[in-house]
Design brief:
The complex is a heterodimer of chains A (460) and B (434). Chain A contains twelve helices and 16 strands. Chain A is an alpha+beta fold. In chain A, helix 1 crosses helix 7, helix 5 crosses helix 7 and helix 8 packs across helix 12. Chain B is mainly alpha-helical and 434 residues long. In chain B, the strands form three sheets. In chain B, strands 1-6 form a two-stranded antiparallel sheet. Chain B has a two-stranded antiparallel sheet with strand order 2-3. In chain B, helix 2 runs antiparallel to helix 8. The longest helix of chain B is centred in the N-terminal third of the chain and has 35 residues. Classes of the chains: A alpha+beta (460), B mainly alpha (434). At the A-B interface, strand 3, helix 1, helix 7, helix 8 and strand 14 of A face helix 10, helix 15, strand 6 and helix 16 of B.
Chain lengths: 460, 434
């Protein structure tokens, strides 16, 4: 995949500034640790305080957290109820990619690549799976089964100039797969990078009424505001739509969790029954490897009982308060106004009134800053892969809540779908397509206003 | 023991975050007895804590004597005696666990003495066919301090020529990973028993006494293993001493309770009992292992002593609620209790708590009897295809959950509203920065 020339007057400057390797347990290091954010907060999620003290629910939540942290093992093992990792996988536990439940970083603290970044495959036209390697590159495997391969990431650098003369260097990751176990990818297969998002707030997002999300869509831009959010319909009849994942491919939190078990860990669940995970019929060693499914546990590796408590934990997870904003209240409020004036709220819709948790009668206002719709984000963010038929330039508006934990004390972060943005300003400057006017608005701000905007975002 | 990763570092502090107490108008209670003075209740509570931790030090002292004797003469008989001393030291410590979760001073120290679960490969040799050799979550998964005089900790080389208390303290939760337990009861347990490689079948760990016999050493580094065991035991006594000290007349926990808001102190008592009942004991230590049928989730897994550790947690909770504790020497510490407070406010609620405690105690007794009789150990009871064993354990879980509900009712009856700290970003879009 060759780096495209970026839109918006970005000139490609230096390709291949640093190389990272992922896979097959090879240590991957970089000398250039400024490349990507290494988080300096140890992040935790807590159970949503609104949920009260019901004993059974609390207990299930605690158990669900243990499942989230559990390191799965390959079959056969002494624990029939909880084995079956792989045969091919990216990580052995949920928490390996979502550290403390938070969004992943591209790099671990020690400078090695984290498992939070993975490679997705799909045809350039309809996003169909690679005939051999499926939809995802699994970089690790149970013993006796070859891992699919590994991948390298190189960074192409580019620079853009803001109205006040400030030059911002941007970096675009270019992934290449290597050491493929079963021969080359199909000629039509394209690759994309995906960074693990945070888990907090998924439960409340799941409870936003579908009508509300659909009503905000304007695929043909009838209102002429330049924003044409599109519902990620998953079926021709327009009955089900996706709201989770970078490409909005999973309809519910439960599906998102089950899909992570399947694709990332190779574990079968009530929603996805295949014990061999994501390996294709052509990967015979994988297909014939031992399964962790046991007849007394619903012939699944992750039984419905385990899934239930895991879903509870994920659905109830929120971030604790803090860290305290460094900026003043006035500056944050100024930034909030700039955020609105730049038009960011058109897609990063701030608030919803929801009834949550299930069974509750109280309305609750949440502020995720997302419309959960797909938007054309322009060539800068586009990839050649059309995952699930979603165009390469289309991305689901990611929620902004929790940025205060994603950005460290120095303002560093791993943002956007592949972690390319090293801070909030870079993330904004990558916006194009429908968001180009908003991006240009920010690029024209004074340094002080720009800082106020960053301070506001860092407080969410 | 387990490979469960504890990336939610400090979970015990953070998932049960700071408690804010709000005082509502107390509903007209059907008072049946004169309510005791809350300060007197808190004093009893601190007195019981001080006595319990004192006894824990005393039985740990017996353990130290037995371990010293075993190290000097590493015979089978002395190993057996040391193991028995470890088992005998557990009840008095487990009874103190009801002081967790309600007292930050206890929570800060608890991990030094009873941290669990642990990646035992940090300490000593393990059976790699079952334990494995690496963990993507824990770079120190097989550090093996006993076999290595130089340890690579991140970029640093640490001199481990001498195994002493200081070295072990530096290794506790190394890499900020809670599974790296270098010290405490469970580290000592592993050093006495070794790994339990029997799964959900019968049998505990089976470390030979010759692992400590420098003349006839098995598995190498017997001198270093002995040094580790000795230092870990000394540290256990030191750390129990610190936990005891916070309840002394000038201790931090007692001072906070007596000088702070009394209602907050009372709420802390009930928070401790409720939190230990469901989140910790019913949930993480019991129901999880039962759902997974996984002996790795067993609390005292090396020694197969889990039934006792669960049982004495419950005994301690009953003591704390009643404000009465009989010391090992037979003397009784007793005084006005939170039970008296609840009974004075609402007799029916107190009756409910008492009944719930009794139900759990009964279920715990069945569990203990089943294991003590030799019929089956705890790790066998949680095995798959063991409906009878599973039920014994499930009854304990059900009892604890009912007990937690009853404690919640007591909280409500006393007009104490326990809520946890909120999360601004979810609830209130305008709170931040305004």
């Amino acid at each position: 995949m060759s780096p495209k020339r970026l839109a918006l007057g970005l000139a490609l400057l230096l390709p291949a500034a640093a190389v990272f390797l992922i896979g097959n347990s090879l240590p991957a290091r970089t000398d250039d640790t400024t490349q990507i954010h290494k988080r300096n907060h140890d992040i935790k999620v807590i159970r949503d305080p609104a949920l009260g003290e019901d004993a059974v629910a609390r207990m299930e939540n605690v158990i669900g957290q243990s499942i989230f942290e559990r390191i799965w093992v390959s079959a056969p093992s002494s624990t029939e109820a909880a084995d079956g990792l792989g045969p091919m996988f990216n990580a052995r536990s949920c928490v390996a990619c979502h550290p403390g439940g938070a969004r992943g970083s591209v790099l671990n603290k020690d400078g090695t690549m984290s498992p939070s970044l993975l490679v997705r495959f799909g045809r350039n036209d309809d996003g169909a799976a690679d005939p051999i390697y499926g939809h995802q590159l699994q970089t690790d495997a149970a013993s006796g089964v070859p891992a699919e391969g590994r991948f390298t990431v190189t960074y192409a650098k580019a620079a853009t100039k803001l109205a006040d003369g400030t030059v911002v260097e941007l970096q675009r990751p270019v992934a290449e797969v290597a050491n493929l176990a079963d021969g080359p990818l199909d000629a039509a297969t394209r690759i994309g990078l995906r960074l693990a998002p945070a888990i907090h707030g998924i439960g409340p997002l799941d409870s936003i009424p579908g009508e509300t999300i659909i009503a905000a869509a304007d695929p043909d831009d009838h209102d002429g505001d330049g924003i044409s959010g599109r519902v990620s319909w998953l079926d021709a009849e327009h009955k089900t739509f996706g709201r989770f994942g970078w490409k909005a491919q999973q309809p519910t939190m439960e599906a998102q969790n089950a899909h992570a078990f399947l694709a990332d860990m190779g574990l079968s669940t009530p929603l996805f029954h295949d014990a061999y995970g994501e390996c294709t019929a052509l990967q015979t060693a994988c297909r014939s490897a031992p399964s962790g499914a046991s007849s007394q546990f619903e012939a699944l590796e992750v039984s419905s009982m385990l899934m239930k408590v895991l879903d509870r934990f994920v659905g109830e997870a929120v971030l604790p308060n803090g860290p305290k904003p460094r900026a003043t209240t006035d500056e944050i409020n100024q930034g909030r106004n700039i955020f609105a004036a730049a038009g960011c709220l058109s897609c990063h819709k701030d608030s919803y009134d929801i009834v949550w948790p299930a069974g509750s009668t109280k309305t609750r206002r949440i502020s995720p800053y997302t419309d959960l719709l797909l938007h054309d984000m322009g060539d800068g963010l586009a990839e050649e892969l059309n995952e699930g038929g979603v165009k390469g330039a289309e991305w689901r508006t990611p929620p902004l809540w929790g940025l205060r934990w994603a950005v460290d004390d120095q303002g560093h972060a791993s943002l956007l779908h592949d972690g390319r943005a090293r801070n909030l300003l870079e993330a904004i400057l990558w916006h194009g397509g429908e968001a180009l006017p908003a991006r240009d608005h920010v690029a024209s701000l004074s340094a002080a206003d720009r800082q106020a905007l960053i301070s506001f975002l860092s407080s969410l | 023991m387990t490979t469960r990763q504890m990336m939610f570092a400090g979970q015990k502090k953070f998932t049960r975050p700071a408690i804010l107490i709000a005082f509502g108008v107390v509903a007209a209670g059907c008072a049946t007895a004169k309510a005791p003075d809350t300060t007197a209740v808190l004093t009893t509570y601190a007195d019981v804590a001080e006595a319990m931790f004192g006894d824990a030090i005393s039985t740990a002292g017996n353990l130290q004597v037995a371990i010293d004797k075993f190290i000097a003469q590493p015979t089978d008989a002395n190993l057996k005696a040391a193991r028995q001393a470890w088992i005998d030291s557990r009840p008095s410590y487990m009874r103190t666990e009801g002081f967790r979760f309600g007292n930050p001073e206890v929570d800060d120290l608890e991990g030094l003495v009873n941290a669990w679960p642990l990646d035992e490969g940090l300490i000593d040799y393990v059976d790699t066919s079952s334990y494995g050799t690496t963990s993507d979550a824990n770079p120190f998964y097989t550090l093996n301090v006993i076999a290595n005089k130089e340890l690579q900790i991140g970029a640093d080389k640490v001199d481990a020529t001498v195994i002493d208390k200081k070295l072990l303290q530096s290794l506790q939760e190394v890499g900020e990973n809670e599974a790296n337990v270098a010290i405490g009861y469970h580290a000592i347990e592993f050093l006495l028993w070794g790994q339990d490689l029997n799964g959900t079948g019968p049998g505990a760990g089976n470390r030979p006494a010759s692992d400590y016999d420098t003349a006839n050493c098995t598995n190498g580094n017997c001198d270093r293993r002995a040094a580790y065991l000795k230092a870990a035991t000394e540290l256990l006594i030191d750390d129990l001493g610190t936990m005891h000290g916070i309840w002394a007349s000038d201790g931090a926990a007692r001072q906070r309770l007596l000088k702070g808001d009394a209602k907050e102190g009372i709420a802390g008592i009930l928070t401790g009992l409720g939190s230990l009942s469901y989140g910790e004991l019913a949930g993480e230590r019991t129901k999880l292992g039962l759902m997974l049928h996984d002996p790795e989730e067993e609390h005292d897994c090396f020694s197969d002593n889990t039934h006792n550790s669960h049982y004495y947690d419950q005994v301690g909770m009953v003591d704390i609620y009643n404000g009465t504790y009989t010391r090992l020497d037979g003397t009784v510490v007793s005084g006005p209790s939170v039970k008296d407070l609840v009974a004075a406010k609402d007799k029916a609620v107190n009756d409910r708590v008492v009944a719930a405690l009794a139900t759990t105690s009964k279920a715990m007794q069945v569990l203990k009897d089943e294991a003590d009789s030799g019929k089956q150990a705890y790790d066998q009871m949680i095995g798959a295809d063991n409906a009878a064993g599973n039920k014994i354990v499930q009854d304990v879980v059900d009892g604890l959950v009912g007990q937690a509900h009853a404690v919640e009712a007591a909280v409500a009856a006393l007009g104490l509203k326990i809520t946890v700290e909120g999360s601004d970003s979810l609830d209130n879009p305008s709170a931040v920065g305004q």
